[in-house]
Amino acid sequence: MNTNGNTYTVIYSTVLVVLVAAILSFVAMSLQDKQNENVKMETISKVLTAAAESDPSVTIDETTNVMQMYADMVTAAFFVDGSGKNVESMELGKEDLNRIEVPTTADLKKQNDLLKKIDGGQTDLLGQLRLPVFIFDVNGTEIRVIPCYGAGLWGPIWGYLAVADDGRTIKGAIFDHKGETPGLGAKIAEPAFYDKFIDKAFSDADTKFAVVKGGNPEDQNTVDAISGATITSQALGKGINLWVKYYEPYLKTVAAAKTEKLLQQQAAASVQEDTAGEATINEEE
Predict the structure, then answer these.
(1) β-strands 170-177, 210-212: how paired?
(2) Selection from 67, 214, 239 nearest residue 148 by Cα
(3) Cα Rg for the chain, rounded, in angstroms?
(4) What is the value of pTM for the model shown?
(5) Cα separation, 102 vs 135, whole angstroms
(6) Whose CB among 17, 94, 178, 272 lies 3.0–4.6 Å from 155's, allowing a Cys bridge?
(7) What CA–CA distance (Å, rounded) separates 121 from 285?
(8) Residues 159, 241: contact at Cβ < 8 Å?
(9) CA separation (Å) from 87 to 77, 79, 81, 112, 277?
(10) Residue 37: closest CA among 100, 87, 111, 84
(11) Cβ neighbours of residue 208 closer than 8 Å, sequence gap 6 or more
């Protein structure tokens, strides 16, 4: 074959392209399991960090076995639908860490797409929602972690909020992004920003939470936006507000359960006082 001809060039190029594509495909398939494991560990680390922020004595660093810590601290993990009903459980990995199940950012994107459709009026999709909930025992305190997701300036942004058993108070938060501007929007992933969320709370109003420019530190339902990153900050606030809006039915059941528990404790205390009082009267007689 004439190596200087067009036919040779076309055949050579075709074979080369096919060969390179086959090699890349093989490498991608070989690394898929490792990539999936890294994604899982990253998600677990974020969820766990949000929960740990509720207690300064709980620390996570590069030496922490986050999968083991997750399995030790998590007490339940499940998905709720738009009515707040628990519709599906996740594997906790108590017996086998490799079996831990957590939703990835790709899963969060799918739910976010559903949320936007529902918010746009397609309420028949409420039953299709699968919103993740993680419950942790943090040194005897029950903490719930819920995610949020949205579109930032240059790509997706997401995060996890640790919520107290009143279903309102934020006890920890952590956020991340795909491509926000370094030194500006990327600051949402820095503790100096997300620590501001601690002890804030969701509102009962239509706007559950917001990130606003020049926000008042005393306002329980807002956090001050990052200077020079108004678009990213507001986008994060909108993402949080949208997700919390559809978590509200579930969070209300959490708050109701706490109220019921407090009433039962008060009733038990009252009975104890009455019993103690009767015993004292009997002794005096």
Answers:
(1) unpaired
(2) 239
(3) 25
(4) 0.83
(5) 13
(6) 178
(7) 71
(8) no
(9) 11, 6, 7, 18, 48
(10) 100
(11) 202, 221, 240, 241, 244, 245, 248
Least confident of 36-45, 53-62, 87-96: 36-45
Dihedral angle computed from the Cα positions of residues 29, 31, 35 and 41, in that order, rounded to the nearest 10 degrees: 130
What are the tens digits of pLDDT across the range 156-176?
999 999 999 999 999 999 999
Tokens of 18: 């096919």
- CA–CA separation, 244 and 131 (whole Å): 10
Pair 133, 110: CB distance under 8 Å: no
Instruction: Supply 191's token pair.
Output: 């503790």
SS (H, E, C) the chain: CCCCCHHHHHHHHHHHHHHHHHHHHHHHHHHHHHHHHHHHHHHHHHHHHHHHCCCCCCCCCCCCCHHHHHHHHEEEEEEECCCCCEEEECCCCCCCHHHCCCCCHHHHHHHHHHHHHHHCCCHHHHHHCCEEEEEEEECCEEEEEEEEEEECCCCEEEEEEEECCCCCEEEEEEEEECCCCCCCHHHHHCHHHHHHHCCCECCCCCCCCEEECCCCCCCCCEEECCCCCHHHHHHHHHHHHHHHHHHHHHHHHHHHHHHHHHHHHHHHHHHHHHHHHHHHHHHHC
Residue 137 to residues 54, 184, 210: CA-CA distances in angstroms?
A: 11, 35, 28
What are the pLDDT digits (tens) for 14-23? 767 666 666 6
Two structure tokens written together for 14: 């075709």
Domain ranges of the chain: 37-251
Residues belonging to the chain: 285
CA distance 190 to 187: 5
CA separation for the pair 222, 212 (Å, rounded)? 7
Phi, psi (degrees; rounded to nearest 5) at 118: -65, -45
Provide the 10 A C-beta neighbour count for residue 91.
13
